[in-house]
Amino acid sequence: MLMSRIRHAYIMLTALLCFTVGTILIATAPVEQTYWAQTFVSMVITPWGMDMSFPAGTLILSAALPREHQGLAASLVSTVVNYSISLGLGFAGTVESNVDKDRSDMLKGFRAALYMGIGLASLGVAVAALFTVVARPRRAAEKT
């Protein structure tokens, strides 16, 4: 329903903003704070990132491919998502173990891994924003 009314690039940008905001909320949540204040809100916002980015990415890629190759778009997006999850977890684990080498402050290591996630999500927002800006003039030129 949302996909038919809003440009896919905007949906992708919104999804990546959800990833970023959700990760910021969980990374900055104080230990003593109640679950409902920040953690719950993060858990509500973050899934919107995945639920909106996968279909938007598939449609963006499908629109860029010739009709006979559009079926490959979902497969390619799915493969990239799975590789990204694996690499992201590996990088986060490496950051966490290097920040807290002696295992004296596990929270510090977890937060460092989350800060790395914020950086990756912010990079995604920047790329999506750039794509949104670049795709707008190209689409306007195609209509004329």
Shape: elongated
Main beta-sheet strand count, sense and barrel state: none
What fraction of residues sit in β-strands? Answer: under 5%
Distance between the termini: 27 Å
Counted by DSSP, the helix tally is 4
Taken in chain order, the helices and strands follow as: HHHH
Mean pLDDT, to the nearest integer, reads 91
Overall structural class, as computed from helix and strand content, comes to: mainly alpha
Structure, described:
α2 packs antiparallel against α3. 21% of the residues are buried. Helices cover 78% and strands 0% of the residues. The model has no long low-confidence stretch (mean pLDDT 91). It has helices at 8-27, 39-64, 71-99, 106-143. The chain is an all-alpha fold. The longest helix is centred in the C-terminal third of the chain and has 38 residues, at 106-143.
Question: Helices and strands in order, then pairings?
Answer:
Blueprint: H1 8-27, H2 39-64, H3 71-99, H4 106-143
Helix pairs in contact: 1-2, 1-4, 2-3, 3-4
Features:
144 residues, mainly alpha, 4 helices, elongated
Concise summary:
The protein is mainly α and 144 residues long. The chain has helices spanning 8-27, 39-64, 71-99, 106-143. Helices cover 78% and strands 0% of the residues.
